[in-house]
Design the sequence.
């Protein structure tokens, strides 16, 4: 009776058999990532090919990890999930360490835009208060602004425009 209530642990063999196409696809995209990084054409296309294939491998790995069998499962399945996660992390680390010319300018661009977006969000409340005060003094009645009306739209445009001149230089590296 106790044996009938025990659930059967998921095995690594069963998991690999059911997810064989996904595992094969991950291996193919990891191999394409390595191959893309070895191209020597001088135009910089190897950075983008390896980035795209690495992105595909990351998405497939995530899908595979989501499809892991529910506990209880064998220790081999647990070990496989940890090794697969570490493999993905090391592949990302390898890509970032091999191609700093691709991500460093983009990180600077993202940081610039993040600062401007932060300023826009932080300045929303004071600008709303200032516009209500000015409207009260100039037209002798407060503005009735709904909550969806935000005053940071010009700052969002400013953030995008501040990054725009550097974008072609970032893409060309």
Sequence:
């Amino acid at each position: 009776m106790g044996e009938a209530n025990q659930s059967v642990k998921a095995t690594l063999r069963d998991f690999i058999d059911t997810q064989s196409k996904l595992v094969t696809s991950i291996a193919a995209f990891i191999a394409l990532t390595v191959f893309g990084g070895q191209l020597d054409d001088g135009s910089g296309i190897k950075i983008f090919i390896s980035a795209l294939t690495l992105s595909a491998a990351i998405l497939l790995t995530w899908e595979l990890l989501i499809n892991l069998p529910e506990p209880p499962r064998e220790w081999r399945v647990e070990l496989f999930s940890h090794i697969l996660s570490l493999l993905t992390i090391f592949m990302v680390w390898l890509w970032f360490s091999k191609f700093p010319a691709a991500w460093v300018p983009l990180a600077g661009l993202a940081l610039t835009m993040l600062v401007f977006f932060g300023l826009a969000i932080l300045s929303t409340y004071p600008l709303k208060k200032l516009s209500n005060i000015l409207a009260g003094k100039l037209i002798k009645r407060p503005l009735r602004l709904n909550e969806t009306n935000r005053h940071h739209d010009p700052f969002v445009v400013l953030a995008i425009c501040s990054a725009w001149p550097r974008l072609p230089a970032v893409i060309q590296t």
Notes: The mean pLDDT is 79. The two ends are 67 Å apart (CA to CA).
